[in-house]
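Pilot study result, target chain (381 residues):
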Amino acid sequence: MFNTLCYLLLLHFSLSQGLTFPQDISALKAFKASIKPTSIPSWSCLASWDFAAADPCALPRRTHFTCGIICSIDSTRVTQITLDPAGYSGQLTPLLSQLTQLTILDLSDNSFFGSIPSSISSLRSLQTLILKSNSFSGSIPDSVTTLKSLESLDISHNSLSGPLPKTLNLLSGLRRLDLSYNQLTGFLPKLPYNLLELALKGNSLSGYISKSSFDGLTQLEVVELSENSFTGTLGAWFFLLPALQQADLANNSLTRVEISKPSGGNSDLVAIDLGFNHIEGNAPTDFANYPQLSSLTLRYNRLRGPIPLEYSKKKSLRRLFLDGNFLIGRPPSEFFGGDTWVSGSLGNNCLVGCPGSSQLCSPSQKPYDVCKRAYGREPMA
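Predicted structure:
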């Protein structure tokens, strides 16, 4: 009974007064000191961080440390740093690594710059790392891949360069990865097998999209690889990823797409965007065998031949963009009935008999001479 009473009194004292570990306090001090004072507005979270006036984890917070940090239940360790988007400018201090109980670090929508310190690997408890919409530069440190507890990593909209870490797959707990809109180069390495969402759009990644990079990704639902420089053939294996729902590979340099019927006729694929590539051959008929597919974009490629009749019989298909190719023949009449269910575009092809009154036929078809040169003969025959 006496021991329990002592514990409760100590807990009460800790919760009301705060007993933040000295190493956490020194890390927070270094973090604030690394930020330009002129970029800390008087109304911001960081402006309320006054180490001379209060303990960072002290409760209740009335005038000091009012926001920006969250502490453990015993008020001894800092577990979260989530800054407001106030325009803070500065470099990320390596001393942040002293916050060994940190689970969330979110500095998004500010003006942090410089490299991401390799000492970030000391944050062994980190589950969420969000540095998006800043000005971080340099490469992604390989040490990031040692963060086994990391579930969400978002460093999109920065100026990171260089290749993706070769050991990226070691992030075994990672569920969401977003490195979009940087200046990353090189090939796709093997990816973490527990990923749900992958976003790498708006970089300069290149090479083939290899099956080995996606091996074992049985839970992957969303893939965003648009606005890169991927080349070659996209294999049929990609569309057969068991949990895939949405895939955006637009604005690359893919030249061929292989596709086969889903195993057992089952697939969760809902939307696919392969627009603005260099894909040749006929429009892939087997897309019609994906039972839930509602949006298909193959616009501005080098497709030839007729529009597959199977597309016009697929009632789940709501958006179809085939414009900007060299498709020939008459488009399926089902697209133009009074009860048509499809929106999109079949324009800028070599089609005949595409009703000008239909939005699907906008913009107009290519000039006859362009189509004849593309086929080397009468294209409508």
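One observation from the pilot: Helices lie at 2-17, 22-33, 211-214, 236-239, 309-312, 368-375. A full batch analysis is planned for the follow-on phase.
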